[in-house]
Amino acid sequence: MMIRIANGAGFLGDNLDAPRRLVEAAEVEYLTLEYLAELTLSILARLREKNPAAGYAADFITVLRSLGPALALQPNLRVVTNAGGMNPRACAQAAATVLAAAGLDDALVGVVEGDDLLARLGEIQAAGCRLENLDTRQPLSELSAPIVSANAYLGARPIVAALDGGARVVITGRVADASLTVGPAIHEFGWDWDDWNRLAGASVAGHLIECGAQVTGGLYRHWQNLNLANVGYPIAEIESDGTATITKPAGTGGVVNRHTVAEQLLYEIGDPAHYLTPDVDIDFTTVELTETGADRVLVRSATGRPAPENLKVSLAYRAGFAASGQLVVYGADCINKARACGQMILDRVATAGFLLEATNIECIGAGDAVPGLHPAPRNLREVVLRVAVRDSRREAVERFTTEFAPLITGGPPGLAGYASGRSAVRPVFAYWPALVPRDFIKCHVEVQAARDWLVT
Fold first, then answer.
1. What angle do CA 414, 416, 418 make, to 5 degrees?
2. CA-CA distance, 196 to 179, in Å (whole number)?
3. Which backbone phi and psi does 141 adopt, to 5 degrees?
4. Please, what are the domains in the chain?
5. Is this model's pTM higher than 0.70 or not?
6. Hey, how many other C-beta atoms are within 10 angstroms of the C-beta on 227?
7. Measuring CA to CA, which residue among 35, 108, 95 is closest to residue 66?
8. What tens digit of pLDDT does each residue of 353-373 get?
9. Tens digits of per-residue pLDDT, 119-175?
10. For 18, 35, 365, 447, which has the most beta carbons within 10 A of its beta carbon?
11. Which ranges of 411-456 does DSSP label H, i.e. alpha helix?
12. CA of 200: how far to CAs of 5, 203, 209, 211, 311, in Å?
């Protein structure tokens, strides 16, 4: 027995047409859509602050609208996504509207909740969990800044529960990326939760496809030989023993080979012998990759151990305000001129009474994008000056944004690129990684027809 799980999104902002093209070009049983990262959760938390009905990945609603015909024509196609972000229930209601418009108001939609711990942080700390910062070992009780989000990384169990309940569309908040694939595999194959090697195999497959086109030629060092304008998105063909073949739809651009799969295998894994997920502790060092045909790589021999007792928690807290601005600087002395202009901006802000807490002056094109790696090219005639600042005082950052335009008539010659106006001031959300015992997590799964979500 084999199931085909495709992934059509690797992050919030990925190609909106990729999911539709995937299911039109290849018949699959599951389409996963992965939208969340630590930064994304902060963005969604900010949106929810502004509007309690927001806070989910709105791109998913656009994608789901495009998937309507395929869902109608392929009754066995299911969608599993973490697009719910900070507000899975609101996402389900928006999705239900789209499904109803496509004549699919009887389609069952499952919602997974329980990852959002913001309202329970006091309770969790009172029970003895210090929620220490994994980088600094500082307990959360010592953080004085306001916390805006706190989300645990859930595993595949609630996804399986939703699929077992008949859900055709499963919407979650923060789950581990690979769990979007593990859930369908367990549902289809009926694996036990302690079948560690099979869980490891499905997790590796999920890890390989979770970033979308990164495993099918995106970021590949030999990209010059590929058609990335029409890059195909990945499909994992998972067998009942946990082995998988990574491929892509025929006729699409990009490539799947041992190199692209190996590069993605090592992406964001930390200790390769202990890749920890909520479902299993995976040893990547035992994984074997074999090219079995054009755009086909067999992935096998993953080994697993019992899942960790603690789950990762991603917290975000307010850390002031930031802004950045840029100007094109032209001339034989463009580098020195640009740095001088950047310092003029900061000096004028200081004269106005604001000594900014964090600043950065860069000359893009002169080697500053990767400092110290390459010297500035000889005979350089233009650079992009970029100045960025951060401060706990909004008014200080706002003053900074007013100091670019005055350089046009009160600075050196050869400046351009100022027509876009003043830069926006944005709040800064800083990251606080922590662990929480899985016993503190209280998952809730609700499955009902799309029409019923419209009235709840």
1. 145
2. 14
3. -60, -20
4. 2-115+153-308 (no CATH), 319-431 (3.30.70)
5. yes
6. 12
7. 95
8. 999 999 999 999 999 988 888
9. 999 999 999 999 999 999 999 999 999 999 999 999 999 999 999 999 999 999 999
10. 35
11. 450-453
12. 16, 5, 14, 18, 17
